[in-house]
């Protein structure tokens, strides 16, 4: 049933063109504050929750999943299937990534960079920019959003669902929410413990996804980048996945720039080495194409994962 659940969830996620959030993560912040208040009430002499606080934070959702699994044992198989598919859809991205990318790139291609920036700022709370003045930086942040959203809200979730079921997928999702929306200090004992747990949970799926990029794109460039970063303990999972994705898409070292033609009365678009660009700004058309290349790479990677899951399912059935 695992393969069928993942396949149905991915199909629904792909064709469901949702433009607004049906589910919100605001419950997570409220739950954090409630648990923090309860923990501090039990030990008022301790200014911040201790290192065991994250276990209390994860306990209610995990218990809920365990309860659902217990109830599923007395339900029909089709109902059980729908429950598992529903759990995955809740953990996936709230808004269709393809719909959002299309809306963003329509603004970007038309030259309305401010509108594109504001759309990204509204959608992604981790945007590290205050204005759209630096177009290269905005483009880099948008590419990072595409890759991080796909990895954190889809590939890693599917990986842990496949390995240990919905409880593990939810546990990973909680570590992501804590990193993005946590109300605790990340430098506290509790914060460091959750961040360390998230790093461990992302280590394997990040490198598997990077390896998938080698199969879905430029194998030589992507695999070389993966070998270079494989054991880099200082680099985050999203940073590793982004670097390998750019290499696989063939745009890490070579970029399309706009420069004056020899006649001086027209503009040619030429492909040159980025080191030789002399600081020339990225052309809007090329940067938009790069984003589409990354999205296509991620979609091809989904196909590869589903194919491998199908082979595993057939092999398991045959065994």
Topology:
Elements: H1 2-15, H2 26-42, H3 53-72, H4 77-91, H5 97-109, H6 113-123, H7 135-164, H8 166-181, H9 189-216, H10 219-229, H11 237-248, E1 254-260, E2 267-273, H12 284-318
Antiparallel strand pairs: 1-2
Structural class: mainly alpha
Query: Which sequence of strands runs across the widest sheet?
Result: 1-2
Strand content: under 5%
Mean pLDDT: 78
Overall helicity: 55-70%
Tally of domains: 2
Cα shape: globular
What kind of assembly state do the chains in view correspond to?
A: single chain
Main sheet specs: 2 strands, antiparallel
Order of helix and strand elements from N to C terminus? HHHHHHHHHHHEEH
Number of H/I helices: 12
What is the number of E strands? 2
Short description:
The chain has 319 residues and is mainly α. Helix content is 70%, strand content 4%. It folds into 2 domains: 2-17 and 46-251 and 284-318, no CATH class; 253-282, no CATH class.
Question: Could you explain the architecture of this structure?
Answer:
The protein is mainly α and 319 residues long. It folds into two domains: 2-17 and 46-251 and 284-318, no CATH class; 253-282, no CATH class. The protein contains twelve helices and two strands. The protein has helices spanning 2-15, 26-42, 53-72, 77-91, 97-109, 113-123, 135-164, 166-181, 189-216, 219-229, 237-248, 284-318, and strands at residues 254-260, 267-273. It has a two-stranded antiparallel ribbon with strand order 1-2. Strand 1 (254-260) and strand 2 (267-273) form a beta hairpin. The longest helix is centred in the C-terminal third of the chain and has 35 residues, at 284-318. It starts with a helix and ends with a helix.
